[in-house]
Design a protein that fits this description.
The protein is an alpha/beta fold. It has 11 helices and 7 strands. It has helices at 23-36, 55-58, 71-81, 93-99, 101-109, 150-153, 159-163, 180-198, 213-216, 220-234, 243-249; strands at 43-47, 62-65, 86-92, 115-120, 171-176, 204-209, 238-242. Helix 1 crosses helix 8 (180-198) and helix 4 (93-99) packs across helix 5 (101-109). Bound molecules: thiamine diphosphate (TPP) and iron/sulfur cluster.
Length: 250
């Protein structure tokens, strides 16, 4: 009896991610959801620029590579041209919350019927660990060697909280993948974000608190602990918006 297998929507290529990086876990969850909803043949993913730049190699559905930060704009065009297809973006915090902030906010405000998977690892991973918009106050990075000084660099951006002030988006949830319970919740949120699109409900974003052991300078295990001790207190997990659920309560 097979009790554990690779989802069909995940390709056979070995991933290039560092040991302990949680990008791989989130890839797997997305692929499991694509399998379960039986949408592989009509799903189009938009890969970002960042460590997950090669996500196009890891999913078996069609993939498009977007310029840094532009994934929601590309997804908007694809979804509007091919409304029967299921379109998702997969983006890091540098991609989504820095150079791509305008695309993020406006696609949410327009309630584009797309699914956004947002990996918040509090750092620019691919380029060697510079400060991101989500870097915590006091966090040491290559460009904040004495720790992020909020007087000089400003405060981190809380994407779910910020987008929840807009009337546009359908669904916003923040999850984490640092332990089994959180991985299970993350899977549920990702599934809902895809299901919403299948049902035509609109813009659904799941922010996944992730780890970057390499640039945080921690072992994989310590990095998962750091998520619990430092990241989750600053970025509380939970549903920030679920318009359909709220309307159903009325
Ligand atoms: C227009 C443009 N500006 C800057 C870069 C350089 N660049 C590549 S990846 C990256 C940041 C990636 O960080 P993030 O999006 O958080 O993803 P991660 O690598 O942490 O997964 C930057 C600034 C680029 N490729 N294109
Ligand atoms: S640099 Fe960080 S985000 Fe990039 S693959 Fe390595 S651990 Fe993951």
């Amino acid at each position: 009896m097979v009790v554990f297998d690779k989802p069909h929507a995940l390709s056979d290529l070995p991933m290039h991610y560092c040991p302990g990086c949680t990008h791989g876990i989130v890839h797997r969850l997305v692929a499991e959801v694509i399998d379960e909803l039986e949408i592989e043949g009509k799903t189009i993913g938009i890969a970002p620029v960042g460590c997950s730049v090669m996500a196009y190699d890891y999913f078996n559905c069609d993939m498009i590579e977007a310029a840094h930060g532009r994934a929601p704009a590309v997804a908007t065009g694809v979804k509007r041209a091919l409304p029967e297809n299921i379109v998702f973006t997969y983006q890091g915090d540098g991609d989504l919350a820095s150079i791509g902030m305008a695309e993020t906010v406006h696609s949410a405000a327009r309630n584009e019927n797309i699914t956004v998977i947002f990996i918040n690892n509090a750092i620019y991973g691919m380029t060697g660990g510079q400060m991101a918009p989500t870097t915590l106050p006091g966090q040491v990075t290559q460009t904040s060697p004495y720790g992020r000084d909020v007087n000089h660099c400003g405060y981190p951006i809380k994407v779910c909280e910020m987008l929840s002030t807009l009337d546009g988006p359908e669904y916003l949830e923040r999850v984490a993948v640092n332990n089994v319970k959180n991985v299970k919740n993350a899977k549920k949120a990702i599934k809902k974000a895809f299901q919403n699109q299948v049902e035509g409900k609109g813009f659904s974003l799941v922010e996944v608190i992730s780890s970057c052991p390499t640039n945080w300078g921690l072992t994989p295990q310590k990095a998962l602990e750091w998520v619990d001790e430092k990241m989750i207190p600053y970025y509380p997990l939970g549903v920030y918006k679920d318009r359909s659920a709220k309307e159903a309560e009325k």
